[in-house]
Amino acid sequence: MILYSGVVGLPVVTLGEAAELGTVAGLDVDVARGGIAGVRVSGRGRGTTVLPWTALHAVGADAVLVESGAGAEGERWRGAVPKPVGLRVLSEEGEERGVVTDVAFDAVTGRLEKLLTDLGEVPAGAVRGLGDYAWVIAAG
Fold first, then answer.
1. What is the pLDDT of residues 43-73, one digit of tens each?
2. What share of the chain is helix, strand, coil (3-state, %, to 5)?
3. pLDDT tens digits, residue range 73-112?
């Protein structure tokens, strides 16, 4: 298990050439898939590129390794990088359930494991949606 906060800011390096593509600016969460869909890489003067999770070789404590050529296959992104941390948590019924302080996911598969909130943990299976304003979780 690895935390969102532990990945943001890490250098993104190609596996074969050890070329630094930039740093992790954020992660794209795909709630329907139940995991991380992509990694947003902020490069020097190149803006932000979104690399698909499948382009990653490994996520470690010191760097994110990507397959050679991954920088070329990424999609350019213009605009603010969405951040899943700091958003409100609402039940399907609209009840406040805290604020997300971090997101835990599997470093190999990218599968969401849990949301860490200021009121406790929410298992990934309870997540129903994610928007610009809030995470939505199952009522109960």
1. 766 678 888 898 899 998 899 999 876 655 5
2. 10, 55, 35
3. 555 555 555 689 999 999 999 999 999 999 999 999 999 9
Q: Three-state SS for 96? A: strand
Sheet holding 20-30, edge to edge: 56-59, 64-66, 11-14, 20-30, 35-43, 47-52, 75-77
Domains of the chain, CATH where assigned:
2-77 (2.30.30.240), 88-137 (2.30.30.240)
Q: How far apart are CA 58 and CA 56, in angstroms?
A: 6
Spatial separation of the C-alpha atoms in residues 90 and 2, rounded to whole Å:
24
Closest by Cα among 78, 57, 21 to 10: 21
The candidate with the shortest Cα–Cα distance to 98, out of 138, 139, 140, 135, is: 135
Separation of alpha carbons 48 and 42, rounded Å: 4
Question: Residue 71: is it exposed, middle or buried by C-beta count within 10 angstroms (0-12/13-18/19+)?
Answer: buried
What's CA 111's distance to the chain center, in Å? Answer: 10
Name beta bridge partners: 11.
Answer: 23
The SS3 call for residue 60 is: coil
